[in-house]
Every structure is written in structure tokens, then in C-alpha cells.
Amino acid sequence: MKVHEPDIAVLIEVIQQNSDYDFQQYSEKSFQRRIEKVLDDHKLSIHQLIEKITANNDFMERLVKDITVNTTEIFRDTKTWHILKYKILKNFIEKEKINIWHIGCSTGQEVYSTLILLNEMGLFSKTEVFATDLNQDVLEVAEKGLYKFREIDEFIDSYDLVMKHSEEENIDYAGIPYQKYFVINRRKNLIKIKPPLLNKPTFLKHDIVKQGNIFERKFDLIFCRNVLIYFNHDLQNKLFEFFYDNLNDDGVLIIGRHEGMLGEIASKFKKEESIYKKRVL
Ligand SMILES: C[S@@+](CC[C@H](N)C(=O)[O-])C[C@H]1O[C@@H](n2cnc3c(N)ncnc32)[C@H](O)[C@@H]1O
Q1: Are residues 41 and 101 located together in one domain of the fold?
Q2: Closest to 156 (Cα-Cα) out of 200, 121, 186
Q3: Which atom of ligand 1 is nearest to the CA of 223?
Q4: Domain count of the chain?
């Protein structure tokens, strides 16, 4: 069902007045598409939707979950992980402590992917990992580290691609079977992340638009992949400045493959693919 701009504005206002969520600076197009899908799925008009969320807090929470897209996978966009492995993490070997923040971590596959590389590079024990998302439900899945097989059907290919030995490096991951990190139950179609990966990250409900850095530290690595795509340009730029301020001097920001930095802020980073290294000015 087609929704018009003035109705979208009213809806965003009602959400803001009746909850902690603020979608004022989300990309209009993407917000509109999500709302149209919700209306179709629930067979509601925009006015009925507004009435429902005003009267029923549970429905409001459901709506927020429907608006935010939670797609993720193990080693999503393998090229990014190659650069991370060979060009970024190896510079962290000399560090005494490493702080990592995954923003919009969804169900956690991206977080566990990072932990695998940290473990293989001997960086695991000196790293602290925070992983946050707006949506409490996805965080509960992330904490359990238990996934339906079809969700990460392609994961073995991606795992092999990222873990494969590279000639240019003297690190050989080729012999590391995925069973080191995952238990697979083919009968039930389940994949379970094993300890010590499972117990390592701190997962927290957190809204990056409203809450900023609650961790009282700067980070060596900030992931914010496939989250910015839902925000408008002003908000994206505010967040890029925020990431810059909250990275250590040699810190690195990783964003999604379809996301990019434009304008003055781009000169503050050195870019390779989706990986942005902070320039000290
Ligand atoms: C498409 S998923 C990306 C997951 C993962 N980063 C990846 O790229 O595979 C986007 C996630 O961002 C979260 N999100 C959206 N708005 C957010 C906000 N304001 N603060 C924190 N997380 C947010 C959503 O709940 C969703 O889980």
C-alpha cells in the first residue's frame, strides 16, 4: 500500500512521542518502503497503524523490529575480511589492549567472524569486544550464537575463502576446519558457535543515534556495516564525525560495501574498499 510523505511524518512523530525510538533522520525512501511492507503484511491503513501503535506498546515494539532490517551472515563480503586480516589486524599485534565495537551487530555473525580472526592471530585474549543493536530480539539470538542452517547456508564457502592461505603472508589458516568454531547439527539444521568465542562479546541494547559512546574509551576498530544505509546524509555525516572522534589515532572504521563517505569528512580517513583508517591531522 502506497504511503504519502505527510503520513510518514505523522507516523514518525507518533513513534517518537510514544517510545524511545527516533526515526526522524532515517532515509525517507527506505523508511517508506518498510512501512508499506508492514501495512501490506498486516492489512492495515496508515491511520489504523498509527491507532494501533498508540494503543498497544507491544505492537509499537513489533513495528520497530519490522522497520529495522536484520540481515547478516558469517564473513559477509569476504573481501573486507581479507583486508582486515592481512592489512589491519596484523598492525594490532604490538598493542597491549584492543577495543572493538560492533554497532548494529544484529544476530552476531559479524562479531563471531571477527573473533575467529582475532583468535587465529593470537589477539583474542587482549581484546575487549562490545556489540550493540537497537533491537533486543536479535541480541538474544546473538548471545545464544545458535543459528538456523539456512540463514548461513553459504557460510562454509565464505569461511574457506577468508581463512584460505595467502601466498603473500606467512600465516597458514588452510588447515583450520570450521568445526573448530562451530558445532553443526545437520538433522536439525542448526549451527552453534562454540566457546570461547561464545562467551567473549558483551552484547547490549543501544541506539547509536541517541546514545553515543557509553563505553568511556576510544576504539581501535569500529564496525558499523549496513546500518548507515538506512540513515539520511546529515545523520550519516554526524556519525562519521562521531566515529572519527571515538577512534584511537591508528583506529579503523569498517562500513558496508554499499555505504560511502562523501565531502570533507572523507579527507580524515584513508580508504581501502569499505575500510577507513583514521588519519591523524
Ligand atoms: C542489516 S543489519 C546489519 C548487521 C551487520 N552489521 C552486518 O552488516 O552483517 C542492520 C542492523 O542495524 C540495527 N540498527 C538500525 N538502527 C539502529 C540504531 N539507531 N542503533 C543501533 N542499531 C541499529 C538493526 O536493528 C539491524 O540489526
Answers
A1: no
A2: 186
A3: 6
A4: 2
